[in-house]
Amino acid sequence: MKTIALIGTFDTKGEEYLYVKNKIENLGLQTLMIHAGIFEAAFSPDIDHDSVAVLGEGSIAELQEKKDRGHAMEVMAKGLCTLIPKLYEERLFDAVLALGGTGGTSLVTPCMRLLPLGVPKIMVSTMASGDVSRYVGTSDILMMPSIVDVAGINRISSQVLTHAVHAIVGMVEHENTDIPVKKPLIAATMYGVTTPCVMRAKEYLEQEGYEVIIFHASGTGGKMMESLINSGIVDGVLDLTTTEWIDEIAGGIMAAGPERLDAAALNGIPQVVSVGAADMITFGERSSLPEKYKNRVVYMHNPAITVVKSNIEENIAFGIKVGEKLNQCKSNAALLLPIRGISMNDKAGSKYYGPKEDQALFITLKKVINNPLVEIIDVNAHINEEAFAISAAKKLIALMEMKKK
Q1: Comparing C-alpha atoms, which of 204, 215, 208, 238 is closest to residue 387?
Q2: Which residues are CB-neighbours of 40 under 8 A, at least 6 positions away?
Q3: 7 - beta bridge partners?
Q4: Which of 147, 155, 255, 373 is most buried by a 10 A CB count?
């Protein structure tokens, strides 16, 4: 019988968790009740808070005496992060459901993030209608707005919690059976201005027997790809759109953090890298542009996205950083440089075309990269020309075949 783990503070949310527990069991599934509150639960849980606190290197008696909510949350969250992956490895539950406000959401989502991709995870939260990146990270947690505070059962909360129960039960009982035949897996990056290139490369790779997963290079996409590579299931990386690093350097809104470009290099995964869309720094609405960018060449991608043309200094900084990342490579890699333009806007005849900026970038990369495992290849084509896309795809296949030998 399938089991849903219910994790939360049963001292303050006992009524709500009992309501959810009964709903799940009435649908024919089991529950595993894990208490992570500081005081006594409103009912007898399957795993008490003492066990959680010990794994967090604390004790309930100490936490009750200290009366420091922040410290208590830290200890209990740490305990859950040790406990929950272990319980899942022992196959003691099949999915996770939790309820909470700011505290409960911060308490439970860290351990949810440690569970493998595909394990159903629902967080019913008062925080679900805002920026949930701090809670979800690069995981597949489903954040469900609680609408009202998780504070009793009423005409609104009963409906929301019932929907959450039916959602998690449905996820568990109706597993994905349409998984394709297993093929070597390639992770690729794409942005709107590199779409023709990446889609043509994807088509070629699929014809050659590979499965290609594309990540939108929007900050979150890059983080998710790095996480997937670190999980060990990726066989090759087609990282043609490294634009997230120009945002990291210049303060754009689509940065992926300082670990971008680490995973493939440090894990020895064959990769083909390029500089797609490194010519653009992305911001929100035009009014959100920092003062220093307002007199630069600007392109309105859509009403919500404003793009600033990167300059020579920013491209040099980009080249230094990407070069440093590629110097970490533990397996053969290739850097392909599209000599005729690095994005849809960066082409001859466009006011956005920047051959001087591109050259500064190319020269910097060639100066910085000193890892003999990284081959630098000039391709006399625009990034979105078929010749470039096919060259990148063929090179990646060659590197992956080399890895097998």
Answers
A1: 204
A2: 11
A3: 34
A4: 255
The model carries a pTM of 0.82
Domain boundaries, the chain: 3-173, 185-404
CATH class of 3-173: alpha beta
Token pair listed for 42: 């409103």
b/e map of 10-41 (b: 16 or more CB within 10 Å)?
A: bebbbbbbbbbbebbeebebbbbbbbbbbeeb
**Surface-to-core class of residue 388, CB atoms within 10 Å of its CB (0-12 exposed, 13-18 middle, 19+ buried):** buried
Measured CA to CA, the distance from residue 159 to residue 166 in angstroms comes to: 11
CA angle 157, 162, 168 (to 5 degrees): 125
C-beta separation of 151 from 162 below 8 A:
no
Number of neighbouring beta carbons within 10 Å of residue 249: 21
DSSP tag of 154: -
Tokens of 46: 């399957």
Strand order of the sheet with strand 298-302? 280-283, 305-309, 298-302
Rg of the chain's alpha carbons, rounded to an integer?
25
Q: CA-to-CA distance for 323 and 321, rounded, in angstroms?
A: 5
Structure tokens at 339: 């000599």
pLDDT in tens, 132-189: 988 998 899 999 999 988 888 999 999 999 999 999 999 999 877 776 678 999 999 9
**289 within 8 A of 298, measured Cβ to Cβ:** yes
Percent helix / strand / coil, the chain, rounded to 5: 45, 20, 40
Q: At what angle do helices 157-173 and 14-26 cross, to 10 degrees?
A: 40
Q: What is the pLDDT of residue 375?
A: 98
Of the CATH numbers 1.25.40.70, 3.30.40.10, 3.40.50.1110, 3.40.50.12030, which one belongs to the domain with range 185-404? 3.40.50.12030
Question: Does 185-404 match 3-173 at the fold level?
Answer: yes
CA distance linking residue 353 with residue 348, whole number of Å: 6
